[in-house]
Structures are given as structure tokens and as C-alpha cells.
Amino acid sequence: MFALEKQRFEDSVEKTRKDSTRWCQKEAYRTAVTKLLVPITFFGLACVILEFVSRGAATADDFVFFIQYWDSLIYPITNLSTQYRWIMTNVVDAERLLFLLQTKPSITDKEDATDLGTVIGRVELQECQFFL
After folding, report:
1. What's the rounded Cα separation, in Å, for the pair 68 and 61?
2. Count of domains in the chain?
3. pLDDT band at residue 47, thresholds of 50, 70 and 90?
4. pLDDT tens-digit profile of 88-110?
5. d(Cα 26, Cα 20) in Å, to the nearest integer?
6. Does residue 8 belong to any structural domain of this protein?
7. Is the pTM of this model over 0.70?
């Protein structure tokens, strides 16, 4: 009777494990690309500005302004990227929970089953000893 439930649980755990592995791989790739693009983009733009400075089209102050502007621009973008990861993880978890709550149980009560009523949910241990 419980073999079907056991198999469904094992399948669900395996699917969750595979999905989690796949998600972690995608997240690692995204993080690597993000971490790689930031210095590459900075280097490229710094080279362009240094070229302008060397030709006299821009001043050294423009280069300093660019560096300060870059810091104030990149931090919020990387922060949003990190927050996006956490939001997506929570959305996926909520979706799995919703799927679990909508699943109909395969074990049902008999038609003439008696109602158990309200269960207190308290366990009392009398004359119980624990040994180390």
C-alpha cells in the first residue's frame, strides 16, 4: 500500500535534487559571466577614456569622474543581480509548495470511517527513563 507513496516520494526527491543541481549550475554560470563582464567592461571604457585624455579631447578629471561614476553604477546592478537570484529561488520554492498542496492524496478514508474529532497533539510520558 505504501510502495506507491514511497516511489512517488523518491521520484519527487530525485526531481528536486536534479532541478537544484541544474539551478546551481545556471547560477554559477551567470555569476561567472557577471563577475567577468564587470572588469572587462571597466577596462574597455577606461581605455576609451584614456585615449580621449591622450588626444586632449578629455581631461584627467573626466577619467576620475568615470571611475567614481563606475563605482556608483556597478554596485546597484550587482546587488540587483544577487537579489534576483534570491527572488527566483523563493518563487521556485513557492511553486513547488503550491504543487504539493494541490496534489490529491492517494490514501483516502473509508466511506464509513468515524471522525476522530479534535486532536490536542500532546504526548505525556509517564514513568519514562532515559539513560546515557
Report:
1. 11
2. 1
3. very high
4. 888 888 888 888 888 887 778 78
5. 10
6. no
7. no
